[in-house]
Structures are given as C-alpha cells and as structure tokens.
Fold:
Amino acid sequence: TVHPGAGNPDMTLVNALLAHCGDSLSGIGGVARPGIVHRIDKETSGLLAVAKNDAAHAKLSEQLASRSMKRTYAALIWGAPKQAQGTITGNIGRSFSNRKKMAVVKIGGKPAVTHYTVIRRFNAAPVSMVECNLETGRTHQIRVHFSYAGHPLVGDPVYGHPTSARVQHMKIDTTVKNALLAFDRQALHAKELVLMHPATGESIRFTCELPEDMKALIEALEKGG
Structure:
C-alpha cells in the first residue's frame, strides 16, 4: 500500500519513506501522503516517483498533468486482443454496483486512455504479455480497462474471475496450471518511468526488471508450450 488509509494505518510505502528520509519529503501531499507524486496499486510492483521537496513535487506534478511523464507497464492478461497494438478508452469512475470498485462508466467518471502492445502470446495457456503506456492515470486504470476489454489481468482478485475457476476445465500442463494458481496478485509491473529532472531539466529514464514471481510464471508458460 502506498500511503496510510482505512485498514492500512502502517506498513505502507509512506511509512518506509518517512523512516528513511525523515522530514525532508515534500509536504504538498499532506501529512498522509508526503512526497507522493503518483501512486501504483497495492501489490503492483515497480516504479513510482517521490519528491523530496515542494519545488520538485510541483514540477513533477506538472509533468504528470501535461502527460510528458512517460509510464510504461508490463502485464499478463487472460486471452489475447485481436489487434497486436491498440488503445482502450472509456471514462473511469466508481462502479454503480460496487462502490469499492472502479469501472468504465457511461455517465460521469474521468476520461482514461491506455495504449497497449502485445509482446507475446503463450501457447501453454490462454495468456498474453502486454506492454502498456498510460496517457492518463486513473485509479486501477489498466486493470479496469483490460477487464472492460474482456482480458482481465492474471491473478486480479477484484476485476477478474478467480484463477481457480478459469483453469479448472482447461486442458493445460499441470505445472502451468499450478503456476497460475500460485500467482496471488494482479500480474502488473511498472517497468519504466521517463521524466525531466525537476532541477536540471535533463531527461531521465528509470527501469525496473520484472519481479521474481512474474519471471517464474512466464518461465512456466514458456516451458509448458
């Protein structure tokens, strides 16, 4: 979890940042979110930007708002989009049927745009690896958009059917089935972040390789077919 909230008073990224940086973090986000420029979902791995002073926070937020900050994600999804490259659009707001979830809504919400490229389709199971670039940054955007498109993320407990229900009738290798069942979070990773340094104006590119659990699942999918 990025910052403290209902049900998560501690053990968050903000708690760790405060322990590491003390009072040097930007105060723009308030007491609950010091230094946090943008967030990633709980259990999504990878990169996010944190500001250590108000001037940096303001400039990074400007880049986020103007969409000049580039954020690239890797995801494993069920099935395969018909197009190898495409864009998913649709306003995102609170689900009318479940206020704890987000959804693509016809009335209200905020515009959301997700660009994707299919990197690989696996033969061992109906799973694809996609790379996503966010034009907007709505809550749960990638998860909501791919679920809306009929391809929810592997392991997503909120926006997809349980993996156990999906694989029980699949004629797939036992090792692959076990690897899918063992993956207990949404298969989403923030792999790249490109931004302008708030002090020098230099373009900086940060990358983060896939975590071990996603690597292990991909390896099982590769070996299984």
